[in-house]
Amino acid sequence: xxxxxxxxxxxxxxxxxxxxxxxxxxxxxxxxxxxxxxxxxxxxxxxxxxxxxxxxxxxxxxxxxxxxxxxxxxxxxxxxxxxxxxxxxxxxxxxxxxxxxxxxxxxxxxxxxxxxxxxx
Length: 120
Fold this sequence. Notes:
The chain has 4 helices and 8 strands; from the N terminus they run βαβββαβααβββ. It has a 4-stranded mixed beta sheet, covered by helices on one side. The chain has one domain (10-119): Roll (2,3-Dihydroxybiphenyl 1,2-Dioxygenase, domain 1), CATH 3.10.180. The N and C termini lie far apart (33 Å). The radius of gyration is 14 Å and the shape is globular. 22% of the residues are buried. With 120 residues, the protein is of the alpha/beta class.
């Protein structure tokens, strides 16, 4: 029988140090890191690898989707952290989507789009 343990993606970073700070401020826990990569997680099942690698076209077409239990609590945390001001990024307020998710959007300092949502 085939079983999966974990799926992680490699997220690009134009400014590696700035991006590491951004993700910690966003609420992710940084695990190990070296000059080329950093491991970030939230809870038991959400993790990604931030890489010290950047191609503009790739980063600006990169989308992460994070499904959470309380999207409005995440939105409040993001606003309280002033991610948009501190990191010169964009935020799009929560909206109910026709596919049954309430979500908001956060762009990271490299242009990566995060769609953070909750099933409705």
